Amino acid sequence: MSSDKPRVLITGASGLIGGLTWRNLGHKYEFSGLNRRAVPEIPNTQADISDFDAILPAFEGIDMVVHMANYTGDADSWDMHLNMGIIGTRNVYEAARLNGVKRVVLGSTGDTTTGYEMDYPYGELAAGEYDKVNEPWRMLTHTDPTRPKSVYGACKIFCEALGHWYSDRYDMSVLCIRLGAVLAENRPTLRRQYPGWLDQQDCVDMIDRCLAAPESLKFDTFNAISDNKYRWRDVGHAKEVLGWEPRGHAEDYDLDDQGGWHQVIKNDQNLRRET
């Protein structure tokens, strides 16, 4: 890499969000990839992030990391989320530390708080029962207690906390993005996605702003959801700190899907309907 642009390693560069990042921001950053599948358009290391020795060389000479590698299968598979989520993320932080990387942007998830859908009014909003919700509803901020609804969400909470520890212990900047639903179609496909949908351009802009944030910003967490009518996670903190202004609106896309609780809960989950 001979460019004067900041050198940024993307884990999961072959995935949807990783690909959006290097395709849209290549004019600002010198990207390389770390992933299991080849990405011929950018310099690329093929390795599994759970293998520390295999991934370590990819971090040499890197200024910042965008960590998007993730297991997208069964949200409750402990073994897979342990290996790719917890162990893999620890490996990314440690490889970054050993190579003097100044910032890691962690792709976290809104699933760190979707357990609130067990309660009113967030479940009603997710189920599309808008007529049962009294406005205005209380928006959840990045400071509200986490409440996952899956092993995946619980593991991401650990990854955020581990990032905070690395930031405090080693003075490395770690910025966590609790991503909404970024979809290949770039539009909601289910009613339950209306509250938490994240437009692809809004997503790219959030990642860009985290990469460009002042070095003095050592640790923070940001909700990333487009400007959706029925969202219940507040994005004011990202606007204030990063100047991020989401422009997408989920409700601009009409759906035949009428929603329902089957999209929100599993059979073994109990609802507490407190109005």
Give your account of this protein's structure.
The chain has helices at residues 16-25, 52-55, 78-98, 122-127, 151-170, 200-212, 236-242, and strands at 7-11, 30-35, 44-46, 64-67, 103-109, 173-179, 219-224. The protein has 275 residues and is of the alpha/beta class. It has a 7-stranded parallel sheet, with helices on both faces. Helix 1 (16-25) packs across helix 6 and helix 3 runs parallel beside helix 5 (151-170).
Order of helices and strands: EHEEHEHEHHEHEH
Multimeric status of the protein: single chain
In which order are the strands of the major sheet placed?
Answer: 3-2-1-4-5-6-7
Q: How far apart lie the N and C ends? A: 57 Å
**By CATH's scheme, which homologous superfamily applies?**
NAD(P)-binding Rossmann-like Domain
* Helical residue percent band: 25-40%
Largest sheet: 7 strands, parallel
Q: What is the total number of structural domains?
A: 1
Assign the CATH architecture: 3-Layer(aba) Sandwich
Helix segment tally: 7
Question: Whole-number average pLDDT?
Answer: 94
SSE blueprint and pairings:
Blueprint: E1 7-11, H1 16-25, E2 30-35, E3 44-46, H2 52-55, E4 64-67, H3 78-98, E5 103-109, H4 122-127, H5 151-170, E6 173-179, H6 200-212, E7 219-224, H7 236-242
Parallel strand pairs: 1-2, 1-4, 2-3, 4-5, 5-6, 6-7
Helix pairs in contact: 1-6, 3-5
